[in-house]
Specification:
Distance between the termini: 49 Å
Shape: globular
Oligomer: single chain
Number of helices: 18
Radius of gyration: 23 Å
Length: 496
């Protein structure tokens, strides 16, 4: 750096510091050496967490975004590095988690020749990200980084991919860095629409609240809980977002997730008015789009979302409101509760959920029902629980109770290998908290090399490996569809 002149890599890091980035997860590459050089001087302010494989780094960034509400940053090199990281981008997309993946790129003088490790990242990541862009002028770094940060956060949060040509990062410039983040206020509900939503709920015989997604604040969560409890309306979580509502509340009735339990499906199908707040209508939360008819459900749906693109995407609502979850919950609670003759309806839903914890003794050598009962007693109130994908995830997803301060990080995408990197990211953010990772033996071996990352950075999650020697989810489908013909699902694993 000479005077105010510095290269694009340093300018990029200065902009991220100004926006509030504090951690980044990556695997080094020669395509972004200028960034690595700039990060040498930001230790303790913007730390580079050295990972062992780009998929693990991207999982950590996706989990970081889901946990903190701030974009998780991942750094990867061009070609193989970027394609390895694609799994984390897809996971962040389906999780509605803010994330920015920075990818090294071939120099601009080599573009379009299929140079070594060259990929068109706009084309490759276009379907997987909210925005995929390449910065080809050093002067535009502040503009594009600011837009990437905003895009990852605002509306429905999600991943952004930013490609960084090598020569752009080494070009010198005097362009000033960003001075700080912009503030984007949540869209608030229009008063007449809010009144209509309240009237629909008040006129219901069996109202239901279905919530989900990111961007929740503590004030927004408290407002939603206050309204739901005051109105005595049953509340369901969408798939793998049960930690955003205190499960100990008398109105909480469970998770609308994969392998939907009968009482949850009954609540959805029997409801006459559903307030879907900050929820996208995914396959698992609608029981394969069968619990509500497409495109016009029998239930009257009030769909509230911070992104107008989610409204009417699958289901035509009786009322669609473009509003942020916290602004809507605050406005809803400010009007006081609604009342109706549905106390028994709510009580039945709660009792049915509580009954799901009454398990008989399990026949396997390890009784996971008893393990989870023990964990419900001993886990700290601020524990963070993670898991990847597989039949084992039923235990952390369905048989723990998430209190107000507990967090649950699990992939809506069903990505194996997410749990361990997510636990490492959580331990980096909150080294003082207990982090517990549930992992199947197959799931664990997808990213177990990241144990070295944990050791290097001082992360100390507790890892519970459920070792059954098979790819259990696939085996279950296989035995149902092709009984007696086991193929490709048995595993021989190391001694964990």
């Amino acid at each position: 750096m000479q005077g105010n002149r510095r290269n694009g890599g340093r300018l990029l890091v200065e902009c991220l510091l100004a926006l509030g980035a504090r951690h980044g997860f990556g695997v080094p590459g020669e395509s972004y050496l200028a960034v690595l050089d700039a990060l040498h001087d930001t230790r303790g302010r913007l730390d580079y967490i050295l990972c062992r494989q780009e998929g693990g780094a991207a999982f950590m960034a996706a989990a970081y975004g889901k946990l903190t509400g701030s974009p998780g940053i991942a750094w990867v090199t061009r070609g193989p590095g970027a394609t390895n990281a694609a799994i984390g981008v897809h996971t962040a997309l389906q999780d509605s988690a803010p994330m920015i993946l920075f990818v090294g790129q071939v120099g601009t003088d080599m573009k379009g020749r299929e140079a070594f490790q060259e990929v068109d990242y706009r084309a490759a990541f276009g379907p997987l990200a909210k925005w995929a862009v390449e910065i080809d002028q050093v002067e535009r770094i502040p503009e594009i980084v600011a837009r990437a940060w905003k895009t990852a956060l605002v509306g429905r949060p999600g991943p952004v991919v930013v490609a960084l040509p090598e020569d752009m990062l080494t070009t010198l410039t005097e362009v000033p860095a960003l001075t700080g983040p912009a503030r984007y206020a949540e869209p608030a509900p229009e008063p007449a629409a809010l009144a209509e939503a309240r009237a629909l709920l008040a006129g219901a015989r069996r109202p239901l609240i279905l919530y989900g997604g990111g961007n929740w604040t503590e004030a927004g969560r408290a407002a939603l809980r206050g309204f739901a409890e005051g109105s005595d309306i049953p509340v369901l979580s969408v798939f793998r977002y049960q930690d955003r509502f205190d499960n100990h509340s008398p109105v909480y009735c469970g998770e609308a997730g994969v392998g939907m339990v009968p009482h949850v499906r009954d609540l959805i199908t029997s409801a006459d008015v559903i307030l879907a707040l900050n929820a996208r209508f995914g396959e698992n939360s609608t029981d394969g789009y069968s619990a509500l008819s497409v495109p016009e459900p029998a239930q009257r749906v009030i769909h509230v979302h911070g992104s107008d693109l989610e409204l009417g995407k699958v289901y035509q609502p009786a009322l669609g409101l473009h509003a942020g979850p916290n602004a809507f919950a605050a406005a809803l609670a400010a009007g006081g509760p609604v009342t109706g003759d549905w106390a028994a309806w709510r009580a039945e839903g709660r009792a049915a959920w509580e009954a799901t914890f009454d398990l008989p003794d399990q026949p396997s050598p390890v009784d996971m029902g008893r393990v989870c009962a023990h964990l419900r007693e001993v886990l700290p109130e601020d524990a963070i629980v993670t898991n990847g994908a597989g039949n084992f995830a039923i235990w952390s997803g369905r048989f723990l109770k998430y209190g107000g301060a507990m967090r649950y990080l699990a992939p809506q995408s069903g990505a194996m290998g997410y749990g361990l990197p997510a636990a490492i990211a959580a331990s980096v953010v909150h080294p003082e908290r207990l982090v517990l990772c549930f992992a199947g033996d197959g799931d664990f071996q997808m990213t177990c090399q990241e144990l070295a990352t944990a050791a290097q950075v001082g992360a100390r999650p507790v890892i519970l490996i459920l070792n059954n020697g098979i790819y259990g989810t696939i085996r279950a489908h296989q035995e149902r569809e092709y009984p007696g013909r086991v193929s490709g699902t048995e595993m021989v694993s190391p001694d964990f």
